[in-house]
Amino acid sequence: MKTIWLITKRELNSFFDSLTAYIMIVLFLGFSGFFTWISGSDIFLMGQASLRSFFTIAYWTLFFFIPALTMKLIAEEKKTGTIEILLTKAVTDRQVILGKYLATLILISIALAFTLPYVVTVSKLGNIDAGGVLCGYLALLLMSAAYSSIGLFTSSITNNQIVAFLSALFIGLFFHIIFEIIASGMSGLAGQIINSLSVTYHFESLSRGVVDSKDLVYFGSIIFMGLFLTEVSLAKRNGYK
Smallest Cα–Cα separation from 159: which of 66, 80, 84, 213? Predict the structure, then answer.
């Protein structure tokens, strides 16, 4: 665990040293703040003590920001050759993957933490649904964790950051919107199964304030699969079966 934490701190320092963290946080707060408080769907216009509009905006903003954060995690190190040095030290592929993954989640959590004043402000407008707010943030974190694992995987299969970014977006689009579109044109059990593959379906379920085990299993499955495929990708590159 100590090794994983050392790698996590190394990646976090890299985010902040390269200004990536500052740019991500400022842009995220700018987009979410503008569309939550100023645009035509803002909270004041709705006149309700609800953060639903914020969660909707953050849902889309993070979808594009996460691939930008993860695209360099392994691809850049492969391109510069530093991944070889890192993996020849007394660390395992899994430790490297988990360290980089946790660093990404911590940065996203920091960005979300800066939106907590939104909760305080909205609570002044009326009785806010505390359970709904907590579940909304949980939904954002789980969605971010799922897409971060996908982004880490696409970063592990190429040494080109742009390819990693576009690949993560392409895969993410299926979960984010395409499965839902396909399901809308189907009926019966098949439509329900396809719809259950959509991140939107499970995100909305959680953000309504209901924590269902099927939603947790869904996000957990994507996270596990993304990290597992990343480890397989690195293992193949290093000559392991």
Answer: 80
